[in-house]
Amino acid sequence: MSWTRRKPMEAMTPRDAGHQLARTLSWPHLLALGVGAIVGTGILTLIGVGADRAGPAVLLSFAIAGAICACAALAYAELSTMMPAAGSAYSYSYVALGEGIAWVVGWSLILEYSLVVSTVAVGWSGYAAPLLTAIGFPQVLTQGPELGGLINLPAIFIIAVVAGLLMLGTRESARLNSVLVLIKIATLSLFVAVALPAFDAQNLHPFMPFGFAKHMGPDGVERGVMAAAAIIFFAFYGFDAISTAAEEAKNPDRDLAIGIVGSLVICTLIYVLVAAAAIGALPFTRFADSPEPLALILREMGQGGIARIVAIAAVIALPTVLLGFLYGQSRIFLVMARDGFLPQSLAKISKRGTPARITAVTAALVAVIAGLLPIDEIAALANAGTLIAFTAVGWCLLVLRRRSPDLRRPFRTPAAWFVGLGAIGGCAYLFVSLPMKTIVACLVWNAIGLGVYFLYGQRRAAVVR
């Protein structure tokens, strides 16, 4: 049956020169791609959403989400070096679990990457909007309809800029990304240097005002440490975008593992410091659900000048997240097009060695979402797609360890069964901790995906039989 048909590992890399990507990225580029994709909206904007859900215990939410992501990252590191193809979790699932599961994972990745780009664009707009309205830009054009505006034009604009950059060339994009990542890290270091000395332990009491498990608050918002962790999980992923660069890595055996594991370690350290400084500097109720919580905290501390620097730096540096995820989404679409699940004409590589057609299509899709929807609902739904993909990666790790123990593994994750089960169990628990309407929306999305598979994709699959 086609549902269980597996793709041969040797068929993962295209033989047609017109569909091959150029190998132009070394490990510093991949490390910067990972850090740039991870550190962004999650810490710059969603820390406010997380504090609203968990109070000071949002620090625990960060720790839980980070531990689960660490398991997923180790699984990605092993699989990506075994199978250096651009399709990430979709490709691994096609080889290890079969065509049907691969389709579900690919469909979920479409949800993840498309909504992440949209979320980050809305987050970028949250920092850019005050600067724009100060010079006379209409406020109704900086917010979607649900927030009282007409359309979020700044979010659409930044997506168009990043897509254009990616279409120009991968190496050129990577160089600019590296510079912007350094600006981002310097900005967060500045925030910690200013806010941490103002740490007040009283701001941590009560530490867990909304409890640990997810529950519905009187205002209709689901709260608790796990409810916050399920949202904050968005702040950690991004390392998976590195696995989509496998076909463009100069030395995938070494560079992919360095990029995936290294970026998560660096970002976890940054998050711990920034979250502790934010929670300690100001009572969480004063910045919960703010679209620009770090800048708000600084203004409340009387550091208006530093707040402006953080806001401006966010406007400059947040596009690194857009670049990482729009890059990853276009590569996943590219591989699905090669496999026949999308029109194969979209897999055509431009003269500059980039998938320009699929990048343009992806940008148009996410621009519509970013222009019309609010950030918290987008982030929660993006997490649902990611959790499905991360669960599949943990599953693939265990299946291949059991079925093909002698396969070449340039990077072998330690304690593979603990890591695989940690990724599967942790992601499953975070999934059920998402808001119920998000879970329902995700299930509806995948039901639609299965309909598309049986009516369209199943007959068009171009896998080598």
TrEMBL record:
Topology versus the membrane: Multi-pass membrane protein
Cross-referenced Gene3D superfamilies: Amino acid/polyamine transporter I (1.20.1740.10)
Pfam families in UniProt: AA_permease_2 (PF13520)
Superkingdom of origin organism: Bacteria
Segments forming a coiled coil: none
Keywords: Membrane, Transmembrane, Transmembrane helix, Transport
Protein name, entry field: Amino acid transporter
